[in-house]
Write a structure and sequence with these properties.
With 377 residues, this protein is an alpha+beta fold. The chain contains nine helices and 19 strands. Strands 1, 2, 3, 6, 7, 8, 16, 17 and 18 form a nine-stranded mixed β-sheet that branches. Strands 11-12-14-9-15 form a five-stranded antiparallel β-sheet. The chain has a three-stranded antiparallel β-sheet with strand order 4-5-19. The structure holds zinc ion. The site of zinc ion (ZN) has 5 residues, from helix 3.
Length: 377
């Protein structure tokens, strides 16, 4: 049985550790120690090297005692800012931060659930096929750990990523493809008081180009666009010669993503040139989208397990990206399932202990049902 006290303790232990993206060393060590204590040896890849980080993805295989095809469960070890010095505060069934940082339930709740489920498999000698768990680095801000993960060492049939919000039983079966955009707008520097007419003000040029973009924010039910950051200028008395504008476009449909990106970049370039500047445009498809059919085996398995626990399943499309996008892209059908976190990426983030318990029970049940299906032939 899932142990409420133990999962709460594990979660609180993890929350107290700082693990900002790229700095997951202590988190990785702690998770590996917990796995060792359970009798499983884990490995760590070199994913951190690609981003100058101090830890890699932690990978563990729980050897099966049954012929069921391997399953993969994943959660990310990193948390967003403000995420240093996190203190978990328990109020009844809820765990919150002290209000100065995020809680880090995103995604330490996923990590705690997986560790608890591994505990339960062992304690109850549950029959199961090979189970893989991967704890990734640097999910926030670019899915870096998952992107670097060598999937060839993980022959899983399905992957469940424990990193979604909403009631337990919620699963994201569709997520958008994502283009990162960068516009490097160039003007010409000049003394602002002596000879402004010799300059071309890159800030003004960039401002015009942004203001005239054909869309911003929500474009349709499955597509969004944002300009999120501008940096430029050297001093108050210099006509600025460069501005960097960072933005993004997302869409559930790949073709639409391409056409929206083209419309945005065309419009931007046209305005910049009309205003006398020049622009270099970088577009990077950071990750692809995914769409898993509602009758896919991975959903059928989840539904069967959830119905045994009287948990209603709620399938939805998300506007956010996660490691799930990458794992689908690497060829393993994957869905993002809820662990009950809420108000994530804010200092009012919280999670219910009872939801974490439910999520761990659901994970155990998925493993159990999957193994039984094989035994029944
Ligand atoms: Zn997350």
């Amino acid at each position: 049985m899932v142990n409420t006290e133990r999962i709460t303790q594990t979660f609180c232990d993890l929350v107290r550790i700082d693990s900002i993206g790229g700095k997951e060393r202590q988190m990785a060590d702690t998770i590996r120690q917990k796995l060792t204590a359970l009798g499983y040896s884990s490995t760590e890849d070199n994913a951190g090297d690609t981003i100058g980080g101090n830890a890699g993805n932690v990978i563990v295989k729980i050897p099966g005692n049954n012929q069921a095809a391997p399953l993969l469960f994943m959660a990310h070890m990193d948390t967003v800012e403000p995420g240093r010095g996190k203190v978990p505060i328990i109020e009844g069934d809820l765990i919150k931060s002290d209000g100065t940082t995020v809680l880090g339930g995103d995604d330490l709740a996923g990590v705690a659930c997986i560790l608890e489920a591994i505990n339960v498999l062992k304690e109850e000698s549950i029959s199961h096929g090979d189970i893989y768990a991967v704890f990734t680095i640097a999910e926030e801000g670019g899915l870096f750990g998952a992107r670097t993960l060598d999937i060839s060492v993980i022959p899983a049939k399905y992957a469940y990523i424990l990193d979604d919000e909403g009631p337990i039983g919620t699963a994201a079966i569709k997520a958008p493809s994502y283009n990162r955009l960068r516009f490097i707008v160039k003007g010409r520097a000049a003394h602002a008081g002596l000879c402004p007419e010799d300059g071309i003000n890159a800030i003004r040029v960039a401002a015009a180009a942004i203001a005239e973009l054909p869309f911003m924010g929500r474009i349709d039910a499955g597509s969004t666009c944002n300009i999120g950051m501008i940096q430029g200028g050297r001093a108050r008395n210099i006509v600025p010669d460069q501005v960097i504008v960072d933005g993004e476009v997302r869409s559930l449909e790949n073709e639409k993503l391409s056409s929206l990106t083209l419309q945005l970049t065309d419009s931007f370039k046209k305005t910049v040139e009309r205003e006398g500047g020049t622009v270099d445009i970088e577009v990077e498809n950071t990750y692809g989208g995914y769409s898993v059919a509602e009758d896919h085996g991975i959903i059928q398995l989840m539904k069967k397990a959830a119905s045994r626990l009287d948990i209603p399943v709620n399938l939805h499309a998300t506007g956010g990206g996660s490691d799930t996008n990458v794992i689908n892209g690497k060829g393993i059908p994957a869905v993002d399932i809820s662990v009950g976190m809420s108000n994530v990426h804010s200092t009012s983030e919280q999670i219910a202990i009872s939801d974490m318990v439910k999520a761990a029970r659901l994970m155990v049940e998925i493993i159990r049902v999957h193994a039984e299906d094989v035994s029944c032939g």
